[in-house]
Amino acid sequence: MKIELFDFHLPEELIAQTPLEQREASRLMVLNKDTGAIKHENSFRSILEYVKEGDCLVLNDTRVLPARLFGVKAGTGAKIEVLLLKQIEGDTWETLIKPAKRVKVGTELSFGDGRLTAICVNESEHGGRQLEFRYEGIFYEVLDSLGEMPLPPYIKEQLEDRDRYQTVFARETGSAAAPTAGLHFTEELIDELHNRGVHTAFITLHVGLGTFRPVSVDTVEEHDMHAEFYQITEGTARLLNDVRSQGGKIITVGTTSTRTLETIARDHSEFVEASGWTNIFIYPGYKFNAIDGMITNFHLPKSTLIMLVSALAGREQVMNAYEEAVKERFRFFSFGDAMLII
């Protein structure tokens, strides 16, 4: 299947650079995955009209690390930018560094006038470096005071309130990017859903920067999907099994929740407590076993995310919906508007 089948023209001005003042103020496109019919709603709060009593929304409670650090090279004072990617063991992290050519094995770095220091212990290609950090106190507290949010490369504006790149239910620290479909929810909206008999269940999938990596092959089948850590608790598994047995719909919030549940469904006959790494790649032709619908944002052309959405609702219907979204000036990507596929 050619990658070009998932391309579309996106005017640059439709890429949302900043979040709206109110999370619920995003617009909502509703796509019927069976018929392709499209409805437009002026507020994300309209989701209340489409999710019914007994249904369950599955949300990703991962929390984004303020993983971008700006420091200097010890001795020379040369400026260095570090992006934390993954904790390897203890205080050793896999990172990306700019400019990488200045950082070799043994190079020492300093951040925040020495409140945090690091030494390079290994090199890899494409700017990858393993750093061993040194500090006093608790690492995540030091990082919280010194780090900046690792916003996606297509966002050029400075984020004034970094909590707007966190969901209101974020609690498990470890992501390099936000599960952006969840950014539309407020605590008040979640309470209203509960009052109407809608369940919420939480999973964790720590989003890696691979989610922004462009697909560089010509055909979908050639693409090597990145792996991400996921976790689902016994309580969440039990709730999802109960919802399924009682005829409720399981609606994931975001592609990350979708990939997590479909990984569980692939490996087990029911929802179970589990954790591990998943590189599941969902594209048209895939048969869904875990979910009935999905809330998602509008994704990049030729991305693995638009392929996943196309697997659920059909490529032609999704591309038609995206064409209409462009025509109707919907806002795209992380801080953009939402789509409900049901």
Our Rg estimate from Cα atoms comes to 21 Å
Strand order across the biggest sheet?
A: 2-1-17-16-14-3-12-13-15
> Which runs of at least 5 residues are low in confidence (pLDDT < 50)?
none
Question: What percent of residues adopt helix (DSSP H or I)?
Answer: 10-25%
Largest sheet: 9 strands, mixed
Provide the CATH architecture of the largest domain: 3-Layer(aba) Sandwich
| Succession of helices and strands | EEEEEEEEEEHEHEEHEHEEHHE
CATH fold group of the largest domain: QueA-like
Name of the top-level CATH class of the largest domain = Alpha Beta
**N-C termini distance:** 25 Å
Fraction in beta strands: 25-35%
Query: Average pLDDT across residues?
Result: 95
Shape, principal axes of CA atoms: globular
Describe this structure in words.
The protein has 342 residues and is α/β, with parallel strands linked by helices. It has two domains: 3-64 and 161-341, QueA-like (3-Layer(aba) Sandwich); 68-146, QueA-like (Thrombin, subunit H, Beta Barrel). Helices cover 19% and strands 27% of the residues. It is built from six helices and 17 strands. The chain has helices at 139-146, 187-195, 234-245, 255-267, 304-313, 315-327; strands spanning 28-31, 38-41, 56-60, 62-64, 68-73, 79-89, 92-98, 108-111, 116-123, 128-135, 172-175, 199-205, 228-232, 250-253, 274-278, 293-297, 338-341. The protein has a nine-stranded mixed beta sheet. A six-stranded antiparallel barrel has the order 5-6-7-10-9-8. A hairpin with a 4-residue loop joins strand 8 and strand 9. Helix 5 crosses helix 6. It starts with 27 loop residues before the first strand and ends with a strand. The mean pLDDT is 95.
